# Entry
Amino acid sequence: LNVSKQDTVQQMHVDYINAGAEIIETNSFSGNRFKLANHGLDGDVWKINVWAAKIARNAREITGQPVFVAGSIGPTGKLLPPLGDTQKDELTAVYQEQMEALLAGGVDLFMVETMSSLEETAIAIRAARKVSQLPLIAQISFSVEGHTLLGATPEDAIKLLTELGDDMPDVIGINCGAGPGPVFDSFLRLTTAVRSMGIPESRLTFSCLPNAGQPSLMGGRPIFMSKPKYCASYIEPYLNAGARIVGGCCGTTPEHIKAMRESLDRYIK
# Structure
């Protein structure tokens, strides 16, 4: 769609900006070579990602709002040994390829999101640091039970940050998941664990972007049941828990973001 339906993608960005978003994400999640190969598009990584960034920038120009364009980077779907046979240098190359295209398109920051493997998260973060010194957000996705698909817990984020050292992201947080309530529980665990490391807030802050609930299949399509008012009710708790970037992931429409924005404005006042 970044190539064939640019006006449609652009209008979606405009709708979210008009709803009050201050950061919009490029339409590039799963835009890496491994994921695109499933659709015979692995040769179009550069074109798809460059346009993802350009379309978002065009939407910003149309609205005249000073929003930030975040280059969305998702997992590759490949597993490292011993669970899989994909090597670290392969993942690094795949991430760098996508990030370089987004950088060429003009993103303001990178958002590595919906990660399950802490090892793959570290690879993506290091790839971003090799490509540029743009601000970097890294977000992990946890289940209702409080662990990723590969078994990592919010407390395990300490291991990730310790391993990264100077390559630490500027923001660490949670996205996706099963809705504002369950995500809040994992977010509290994450912030408590990371704060125990004594990292100053000037060096690392937190983000929280949950789904609009747990999706249910209806008519072959995933439907998210959490309404805008419910999602907005968690903005204040997230902020009180330390989040400085709040918003939504799957299922959050412009109406959800508008309600969240209103809740944020009331909190600030």
